[in-house]
Amino acid sequence: MAEIEPFHVMDLLARARALEATGRDIVHMEIGEPDFITPAPIREAAKQALDAGKTHYTPAMGLPALREAISDFYQTEYGISIAPERIIVTPGASGALLLALGVLVNPGEQVLMTDPGYPCNRHFVRLLEAEAVGVPVGPESDYQLTRALLEQHWTADTTAVLLASPSNPTGTVVSMDNLVSMHSVAAAHGGRLIVDEIYHGLIYDGTVDSALGVSDELFVINSFSKYFCMTGWRLGWLVAPVDYVREADKLAQNIFLAAPTISQHAALAAFAPESREILSRYRDDFRQRRDFLLSALRELGFDIPVTPAGAFYLYADCTRFTNDSYAFALDVLAKAGVAITPGRDFGAYQSECHLRFAYTTSLARLEEGVARLATYLRST
Amino acid sequence: MAEIEPFHVMDLLARARALEATGRDIVHMEIGEPDFITPAPIREAAKQALDAGKTHYTPAMGLPALREAISDFYQTEYGISIAPERIIVTPGASGALLLALGVLVNPGEQVLMTDPGYPCNRHFVRLLEAEAVGVPVGPESDYQLTRALLEQHWTADTTAVLLASPSNPTGTVVSMDNLVSMHSVAAAHGGRLIVDEIYHGLIYDGTVDSALGVSDELFVINSFSKYFCMTGWRLGWLVAPVDYVREADKLAQNIFLAAPTISQHAALAAFAPESREILSRYRDDFRQRRDFLLSALRELGFDIPVTPAGAFYLYADCTRFTNDSYAFALDVLAKAGVAITPGRDFGAYQSECHLRFAYTTSLARLEEGVARLATYLRST
Predict the structure, then answer these.
(1) What pLDDT digit, counting tens, does each position of A223-253 carry?
(2) Interchain contact, A43 vs B37, CB within 8 Å
């Protein structure tokens, strides 16, 4: 436990709440979940399931109808054929990651991942007594791993590589070419890729294919939380290579029994045209926010060298203002009333000169936040 | 993974489903969840939360109002004062157990538990690279651990003891005197008790106090699944000693973020008089079923030496009929159309001459099952 760090942003959030309790207005740019509530058709489906008394456990791998709906989604959205048998519905992407790591990784083995990256990932690996190896990445590789980085960091103990596309905190995607290359490196070493696609619906420039198009031999994690705006429902899924499904099922039976039933029934409505239309409008809003915030922060002097294609984060180099981004974030909160996440929540590599801005609040609030930041920066 | 066994009952269940698909009628006495659907007032509360758009994450430790409601429940139900700060709402009891073990146990350490016992418990311990030590227990100690057994099995590596009261598969409870004794043994060795009280509302003879009355220094796991008939909602809670709360919060943030939001809002209605009244009727039904099945099985020749005070299971010695309870269960399913759980799902100690009968189906169906068993036993 001692090696599992808390999120530093939680301390910051506690301070923000304390300020709000005194009447201060805080612009929240630290929150990692969509501000939109779940589309009404999905909530209606949940209510129908409640009326129908659907309150018992589902099978450990999920409602068969939902696994089929996800399979159909891969067909219609990406043009790829994924058998429902390979799809395991989980309590959030957390559950999916735990299953993937649980069936792949033994104690003492190594999992490569980006630094910066989503902090829970390395903590999960640690929980299983394996070793998370953070590989420093920067704008030169769009903050993603590459074939060369894998070759450089692979050891006899490496068994898996965890990628995120789009990534948290950088919002960048892994190109298909890069995925193909990395998959072949991993395969050559007898290792596997686990690709986190939980921000996958939230792509603002062009389209992005699923890593599942590269090979049937990699793991993909996804979630209803982000694009589908279903955070509180705790529902995600894992697509596993066929040989691992039985093990994953066994582990699921033991560690969480099944994902929440009502959430699963609700999610059946997430793919319906009326839901997709609402989600599409939400995505347009996110795109508009990204475009505004990206250019506004660059104008203020933050360095964002790679335009993030997706998710709802901007990962900004704040070297021009500070070499202690945690202290900077606390000062911005106290003086300007703007909450942002310090880089240290995402790793060690150059984290003290980085900040993550989330655009999970309205354009008007983002404008207010930027105005406050401008005033703050002028006065310091 | 190789050391984590699947539930054997799952194979049996698959066979049962296959038989049902051919038109056979199967009496299910293997299912570990209440057949009752969640009381309407709880479902209504969920619908109101959906209408109000409560679809975002809650804090990692749960809705403050729910933590307070659980605290109030301890006051009114057990007359004990448990600060809401010590109560952590989790995704099912599984989440609570993972938190308790995660903050208490290091790799290589030992956790004592009963054999027979709930199989997931030892798998959780194994997942954390610790060692689950099954202590054989029989009717002489009501299938529970005792002070003497703890003294006998405690080693330098032992750090925790996992108790369940009422227990799955035996339905027996740990007496308050025994709890006090075991707590003092554990404390003297610098260890801790974790007490699983997930079947706690389902007590048919007298009343049973919570282990929390013994000391503030032990861990208690509970759940909305069983007594509150909310299995599919995936909602439980952990009461931790005050010194462990911060660690448990940190771990919760990392491994599951938060319990399902709608479930938490629904659970706020679980303590209301109108829900409790329905649950009380359900409990009366369970009592009636237990009384019927206990005497019927004894009459058939199954040995159930300890009358189980709670849960919805009977753990029966079937030595008179077989010394291979797994083969017996498969044969009973095939020939009599009755599904029961073989002892091997609960451990190694005398498991081949034990079966678990669950009374999670109606009295009429239990009567049908018993009639079929009688015919089966006469013909073999």
Answers:
(1) 999 999 999 999 999 999 999 999 999 999 8
(2) no
Instruction: Compute CA A139 distance to the chain's CA centroid, rounded to the nearest angstrom.
Output: 19
Specify the pairing of strand B219-223 against strand B236-239. antiparallel
Contacts A95 to B, Cβ<8 Å: 256
DSSP state of B225: S
Say how far apart CA B65 and CA A319 lie, in whole Å.
Answer: 43
Averaged pLDDT of chain A: 95
pLDDT in tens, A293-319: 999 999 999 999 999 999 999 999 999
Q: Do A263 and B262 touch (CB under 8 A)?
A: yes
B325-336 and B363-379 are packed helices; what angle lies between their axes, rounded to 10 degrees?
110
In 3D space, the residue among B159, B212, B198, B179 whose CA is nearest the CA of residue B311 turns out to be B198
CA–CA gap between residue A343 and residue B273 (Å, rounded): 49
The verdict on a CB contact (< 8 Å) between A251 and B46 is no
Between B5, B56, B255, which is nearest A231 by CB?
B56
Closest CA to B85 of B103, B68, B102: B68
Q: Which of B230, B233, B224 is nearest to B197 (CA)?
A: B224
Alpha-carbon torsion (A5, A11, A14, A16), positive or negative:
negative
Rounded to 5°, angle at Cα B90 from A34 and A67: 60
CATH class of the domain whose range is A56-270: alpha beta
- Return the number of other C-beta atoms located less than 10 Å from residue A363's C-beta: 14
- Which of B7, B9, B36, B57 has the most A C-beta neighbours within 10 Å, making it the best mutation to test the interface with A? B57
Contact at 8 Å (CB) between B302 and B318?
yes
**Domain residue spans of chain B:** 8-38+274-379, 42-271
Low-confidence ranges of chain A (pLDDT < 70): 1-6
Q: Closest Cα of chain B to A5: distance in Å?
A: 7
Asked whether the beta carbons of residue A1 and residue B251 sit closer than 8 angstroms, the reply is yes
Nearest by CB to A261, from B57, B103, B232: name it. Answer: B232
Chain A residues whose beta carbon lies within 8 Å of the beta carbon of residue B263: 260, 262
d(CA B130, CA B107): 5
The DSSP letter of residue B303 is B
Asked whether the beta carbons of residue B102 and residue A127 sit closer than 8 angstroms, the reply is yes
Q: What is the DSSP letter of A23?
A: T
Residue type, A298: R
How is residue B107 annotated by DSSP?
T
What CATH number belongs to A8-38+274-379?
3.90.1150.10
Distance CA A264, CA A51 (A): 15
Of the two residues B28 and A254, the one the predictor is more confident about is: B28
Candidates A191, A189, A137, A185; CA nearest to A165 is A137
How far is it, in rounded angstroms, from Cα B140 to Cα B149? Answer: 12
Taking the C-alpha atoms of B196, B202, B208 and B211 in order, what is their torsion angle to the nearest 10 degrees?
20
Q: What are phi and psi of A161, to 5 degrees?
A: -130, 130
Contact criterion met (CB below 8 Å) for B165 and B178: no
Q: What is the pTM of this model?
A: 0.96
Contact B4 A250 (CB under 8 A): yes
Q: What is B42-271's CATH topology?
A: Aspartate Aminotransferase; domain 2 (3.40.640)
Task: Give the chain A residue nearest B246 (alpha carbons).
Answer: A6
Residue to substitute from B8, B11, B43, B249, interface A, most A β-carbons within 10 A: B43
Label the pairing between strands B27-28 and A354-358. unpaired
Domains A8-38+274-379 and A56-270 share a fold: no
Residue B209: strand, helix, or coil: coil
Chain B residues closer than 8 Å to A258 by CB: 232, 234
Find out whether A217 and A241 touch, Cβ atoms under 8 Å.
Answer: yes
Return the HEC string of A38-66: CCHHHHHHHHHHHHCCCCCCCCCCCCHHH
pLDDT given at position A2: 63
